[in-house]
């Protein structure tokens, strides 16, 4: 995937906001896609991004989480775990499809469509600099932060 094939997009966000990717040029940007609010792996990942949030800000980077959950679920998840970043709601899977993160997954012996845990980092110019797919939640936020600090 290259920056040229990722169209600008907007999504509703927690806090009554609307996120537009193009509005975040001038700062590094992390978009982490996760399957579902309040599930063990997703909670671990979100908490680790939370715990490193100040370091991301010091590196000139904004962090946003994206899933197919609605805003009410996102607001509850954000409040329950004191997440300092906004969560984006892609109930129509538009942005998930743009990034190619909807995959067939085997859940307890059944094939289901769902989000493949993935993260994308854009630099200050809006260029896609790195992507992770099929990742493990635990320790991933630190790996992303380590990469972001190389961009400065």
Radius of gyration: 14 Å
Arrangement of strands in the largest sheet: 5-4-3-8-9
Parts with pLDDT < 50 across at least 5 consecutive residues: none
Q: Round the mean pLDDT to the nearest integer and report it.
A: 94
How many distinct domains? 1
By CATH, the superfamily comes out as: Glutaredoxin
Strand tally, please? 9
Write the CATH fold name.
Glutaredoxin
General form: globular
Kindly describe this structure:
The chain has a single domain, classed as Glutaredoxin (3-Layer(aba) Sandwich), CATH 3.40.30. The chain is built from five helices and nine strands. The strands form three sheets. Strands 5-4-3-8-9 form a five-stranded mixed beta sheet. The protein has a two-stranded antiparallel ribbon with strand order 1-2. A hairpin with a 2-residue loop joins strand 6 and strand 7. The longest helix is centred in the first third of the chain and has 12 residues. The radius of gyration is 14 Å and the shape is globular.
């Amino acid at each position: 995937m290259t920056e040229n094939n990722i169209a600008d997009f907007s999504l509703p966000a927690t806090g009554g906001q609307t996120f537009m990717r193009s509005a975040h040029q001038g700062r590094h940007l992390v978009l982490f896609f996760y399957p579902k609010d309040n599930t063990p792996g997703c909670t671990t990942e979100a908490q680790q991004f939370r715990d490193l949030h100040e370091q991301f800000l010091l590196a000139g980077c904004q962090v946003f989480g994206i899933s197919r959950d609605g805003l009410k679920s996102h607001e509850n998840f954000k409040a329950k775990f004191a997440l300092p970043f906004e969560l984006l709601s892609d109930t129509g899977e538009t942005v998930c499809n743009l990034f190619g993160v909807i995959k067939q997954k085997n859940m307890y012996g059944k094939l289901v469509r769902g989000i493949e845990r993935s993260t994308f980092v854009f630099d200050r110019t809006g260029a896609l600099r790195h992507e992770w797919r099929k990742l493990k939640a635990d320790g991933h936020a630190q790996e992303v932060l380590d990469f972001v600090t190389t961009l400065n």
